[in-house]
Amino acid sequence: MVVFIESSCIIAYCRGKEDDFNAGAITLYEKLIHHRGIITEIVKNQITVRLNELIGSTRDKRYANSIVFKRGKFLDRVEELEINNKLKERKRIKEIQQALEEIDFKKKQEIMFKKRRTSLLPETTDIIIGAQATVLKEELGESPFYLASTDQDFTFLMVDILENYDVYVDFPGSIARRL
Amino acid sequence: MNSNKNLDVFVPSNGIILLNLLSYTDRIYGAVRLTKIEFFGFKEFDLPLNYVFYQGLMGPTTQDLKYDYEYLSALNLIDVEYVATDELNDLLVFTITDQGREFLKNYNPYEDLVDQFGSLIQTYGYQKKDALVEKAHREYTEPLYMLDLQELLHSLRTDMLLASIFWDKLGTVYMEAVPFWYLSQLLESILSRFKNTSNNIDLELINKLHELIVEKSKEYSIVLKHDETPEFDISFCNFLYDEGYDLLKQGVEAGLINREELE
Fold first, then answer.
1. Using CB atoms, which residue from B241, B248, B257 is nearest to A48?
2. What tens-digit pLDDT sequence spans chain A (179 residues)?
3. Other residues' Cβ atoms within 10 Å of the Cβ of residue A52
4. Cβ–Cβ below 8 Å for A64 and B171
5. Which ipTM was obtained for this model?
6. DSSP for residue A123
7. Residue of A nearest to B263 (CA)
């Protein structure tokens, strides 16, 4: 059983009680002692960028310490993997992009407004992360393969697409309950 | 120190001491004379200089002073003029610039050492080079001279305080600068609570991070001085947060950071 952790999940853990998904992220973190959690470099980078913004906006030393400590704790518990088959990753990105374009306009518009984005499609990094998860699923050959995220792009738009590749997307709390 | 957070460039504590010295005199002639003045200041006037002075041909000397005055000169805080002489080497003439004086007005952690700077220049500032070298040879024969642990920690803390002010300002413009601010303030707070070696903390790690921040602060100061846009590497930001986590863990184990703060 493998859980691919998306950045929003780790950020929910770092932000503490302020975040709606904090409780779920904590439960998932606890469960990861017995299960395999994985991330990729792009996820780690996303976390850092987001945490830079958080720490930069508060400049509270105590809060900064707690964020960095929790980031380290979570990253200690997960493995950072690299994609071996880059070609497959690129192919998968195209497939996901195509599948996204076929999604109903209203659904995409709804998520766009929710995320306060200007474009209908998810950010490129999110599409890449989705593609990486599907490639890793095949490379590791383990099943079931979960993707934990609190991001609407994953949990609403891409959930069906990724399910076609046997990657099950859900909120961290729900995944933790299933582990 | 002045609390207005407007530090455009980073100057380490050793550099600020050099600026202070130069502000008490018109100019200092010669690199050897400058080294000797700094050394006597360190030994006889208790200036908290974080250099390791070792025995050279001209008495106790250090290479780091050269890097410092070259760096200050690159920032245009001091002027280093090379005057040709009838000997092989040029004579170096050091003067403080208006920008340097302005910097000192805003940020001078050594304001309470005014008397020491004044009397050091009075005593040794205008002596002949040979007299200074001879005195150094006669009175200071040990192979190494450096700060003791407590003074060293104090000096490192001053550096980190200055660095955190510098990065705090930079962090308002560039988000990627935030990890530098974070690490410098963390080091500063750990160093200020650190009392003795019985605290179970890795001094080598602190030293390594201190050097890294000082080096990067200098690098970015020069970039900003030339009105260029600094570039930050995301993997380096990751590295800084990773190191910050290591430091936090050690701080908690050593009892320097309250664990409850982190949960």
1. B241
2. 899 999 999 999 999 888 889 999 999 999 999 999 999 999 999 999 999 999 999 888 899 999 999 999 999 999 999 988 889 999 999 999 998 888 888 888 888 888 888 888 888 899 999 999 999 998 888 888 999 999 888 888 888 888 888 899 999 999 988 88
3. 23
4. no
5. 0.90
6. P
7. A66
